[in-house]
Amino acid sequence: MIRQTEEVDADSYHKYISMLCGAIGTVNYMELRGAKQMKFKDLTFKSTAMPKGVQALLGFGDYELSIVKSDFSYGGASGLYEIAVFKDKGQVEMPGITEEGDTVKGFLSELEVEGIIKKMHLVSGADPKEV
Predict the structure, then answer these.
(1) What is the pTM of this model?
(2) Buried b vs exposed e over 54-83: b needs ≥16 C-beta within 10 Å?
(3) Which of 58, 87, 106, 116 is most buried, by CB atoms within 10 Å?
(4) What would the pLDDT profile of 1-35 be if each residue is shown by its tens digit?
(5) Which domain holds residue 27?
(6) Which DSSP symbol is given to 70?
(7) Nearest Cα to 110, choosing from 85, 71, 79, 88?
(8) Using omega within 30 degrees of 0 as the cis cutoff, is the peptide bond preceding 51 cis?
(9) Residue from 119, 130, 107, 128 nearest 35 by CA
(10) Phi and psi dihedrals of 92, rounded to 5?
(11) Residues 110 and 47 occupy one common structural domain
(12) What is the reported pLDDT for 34?
């Protein structure tokens, strides 16, 4: 624990603040320090030919988040979105985002996709960048 009378370097201070804030506080703290805040409305969706639909790709350091909606995606026929996380060109499980044993998550509203973007930001420690 850091006492008020102790001098600490910036890294130790930021780690201490992150620990105190918890997961949501950490994301908000990262955003306050200049991390990119991305909302669903900021996503750029591109048309896909096969299957016919739309896709947005976000990079988070070593990870990519694919957000799709098509007639064949989980929830796409109902206007909902499906996500998958990629690392090294392969789909991967992402604790807290996908379920154990699964690499995709479907039937997501715009607000739920926005929450996943924040979680990816927290887990990866990297700002989202469109790919």
Answers:
(1) 0.74
(2) bbbbbbbeebbbbbbbbeebbbbeeebbbb
(3) 58
(4) 444 455 556 666 666 556 555 545 555 555 555 45
(5) 1-35
(6) E
(7) 79
(8) yes
(9) 128
(10) -135, 155
(11) yes
(12) 47
* The residue to which tokens 């350091």 are assigned: 61
Q: Which residue, chain included where needed, has tokens 């008020």? A: 4
10 and 30 both lie in a single domain:
yes
112, two tokens: 């739920």
Residue 118 and residue 90 share a domain: yes
Query: How many C-beta neighbours within 10 Å does residue 111 have?
Result: 9
- Rounded Cα–Cα distance for residues 129 and 73 (Å): 23
Number of domains in the chain: 2
> Which tokens go with 52?
């016919």
Whole-angstrom distance, CA of residue 15 vs CA of residue 2: 11
Tell me, rounded to whole angstroms, the distance of Cα 106 from its chain centroid: 15
The number of C-alpha atoms within 13 Å of 3 and in the hemisphere containing its C-beta is: 2
Q: Are residues 22 and 67 in the same domain?
A: no
Q: Are residues 74 and 61 in the same domain?
A: yes
**Helix axes 110-124 and 10-32, enclosed angle (nearest 10):** 160
Average of per-residue pLDDT across 98-115: 96
Contact indicator for 86, 64 with CB cutoff of 8 Å: yes
